[in-house]
Amino acid sequence: MPSESDKWGWKHVSVFGGFDKGSGTKRWKCNHCNLPYNGSYSRVRAHLLGFSGVGVKRCPAIDRSLREAFQSLEEERTAQKKKRASAIVKHGKCSQTSRPNMTCVTKEDVDEILARFFFADGLDANIINSTYFHEMIKAIAVFGPSYEPPSVQELSGSFLTKEKERIEKSAALVRESWPHTGCTILCVGRLYGPLGSFQVNIFVSSPRGLSFLKAMSVNVDALCDSVASILSNTIVEVEPTNVIQIIAHLADANTCPESRILSEFPHIFWSPCSSHSFCILMDEITELDWAKPVVLCAKEIEKCIVSLQSFSPFVFTQNLKGCSNSQFYKIAPSCFTVQKILEIKQELQELAAREEWKQWKLSIPEDVRSVEAAILGEDFWNRAYMLLQICEPFVRLFAALDIDRCLMGDVHEWRVQALDAVKNMGIGSGALNQLEELIENRWDMLFSPLHSAAYMLNPRYFGRGQSKDKIIMRGWKTTLERYESESTGRRVLRMQLSSYWQLKGSLGEEDAADCRDKMDPVAWWENFGFEIPHLQTLAIKVLSQVSSVVMCEEIWQDNGTSGSGTERGEDIIYVQNNLRLNSRS
């Protein structure tokens, strides 16, 4: 960097103050015209040379000869600056990857250097969106060009240790809330690598936040026992009295250690993941007697179109991939197939009447007369439209539910609203009865009884006729039997539930009624449930739990098994996953 002595203009002004220490912004007064200004050297130079547009006036006291002398000094200074820059660039041309001249680096230079770093080390371009990446860039920029990064040994040693300690200190504050709200242990896993090892990841969720606890690789041959042992140890670590439920989703594994865990900890709920259960329920709806032929026919039509496009690419150019933004795309894939076919009904009917369709039929061994009849008739289209009518409220309401953040009990409200919407469509009683029977028969298998307890105890849903709903009352009964082993304790909870429904004492006050749908349900119980303390405790714990593992799956999916089995590797995964969770929250 050129020194201040190179800037000849400072000799012609009097500096009497500065703003920020180390900055070029100063208070100064011209020695020729005595006018005061604020600004850096660029304004001094502009004032003396007579430049405009930089926030200062041309000095009125400088004549032509003096200004020409100043111009000569400026030209000499510019020449010296170029000479220095040329020397630096010449010295740095030993390789194409050498650093540019940092004395006059531009935004484009910095972008190219950053991109080169990503390309050379094979980094995921999505890192550019990381909160921590932007924090790092800003911190380095503030520190300045003299910053030197830590060594590899320091990163994997003292800095890793410090970051782990910081996360553990934050986690300790979260743990303090578990006796009050309870917590959920989330277990997700998958087969990994050619050796067939199974990676198990454990998270703990409570209203204070979602925390990553640990990751372990186990042998597939003893998967059930290994997962049971991991969960059992985790429950002891978290404290059994703090654990309300376990939600486990072990993809690619036909195992479930539920019975072993519940025999050891009978008060804990083993709950299915609501997101995955919903997808199963939607698949089962499409398997109903009247719906299954519609889905099969839609898939046959799709196969015929693909075959026709292969036979004659320009005959039918409609895109069969459909819109990936469709609500059916991820939630109900079978319905998504029907939706795609229904959207091109007119084009398909016109196609089936064309000569090219007839020529294609003669070229294939399969008999497609049933597919052709479905396309040209109306029965398939009517049934397809009815299937989408029935499924649309379920899919739309579930997509709006934000299952990662919704409260226990919201899933029942989704069920009630979706069924009401279907009933209001005028659907035939036969199809409607099959739908309601399927949901009632499968609900207890697909969803936790805690949802029923939460739907009864969430003040937002007060007075929704829960006592007349068989699904909810079965879930409430199961919840009491699991939560409270003594019949005396269950009787107290049932009596206090009646007090809640009858709005006795503080529950019937004006503030309590006014705050039912305005206040967080847990906070509502903390404020107004003190006269029925046993039910208050149960309500707070039930309403504090989550019901899905989807966010956990998104967090751990890129971990791999790097460093697994070593203390350093486990520390890296622990820090990595918790930082990811923190950036999302």
Automatic annotation (TrEMBL):
<feature type="domain" description="DUF659">
    <location>
        <begin position="150"/>
        <end position="301"/>
    </location>
</feature>
<dbReference type="InterPro" id="IPR012337">
    <property type="entry name" value="RNaseH-like_sf"/>
</dbReference>
<feature type="domain" description="HAT C-terminal dimerisation">
    <location>
        <begin position="516"/>
        <end position="557"/>
    </location>
</feature>
<dbReference type="InterPro" id="IPR007021">
    <property type="entry name" value="DUF659"/>
</dbReference>
<dbReference type="Pfam" id="PF05699">
    <property type="entry name" value="Dimer_Tnp_hAT"/>
</dbReference>
<dbReference type="InterPro" id="IPR008906">
    <property type="entry name" value="HATC_C_dom"/>
</dbReference>
<dbReference type="Pfam" id="PF04937">
    <property type="entry name" value="DUF659"/>
</dbReference>
<protein>
    <recommendedName>
        <fullName>DUF659 domain-containing protein</fullName>
    </recommendedName>
</protein>
<dbReference type="GO" id="GO:0046983">
    <property type="term" value="F:protein dimerization activity"/>
</dbReference>
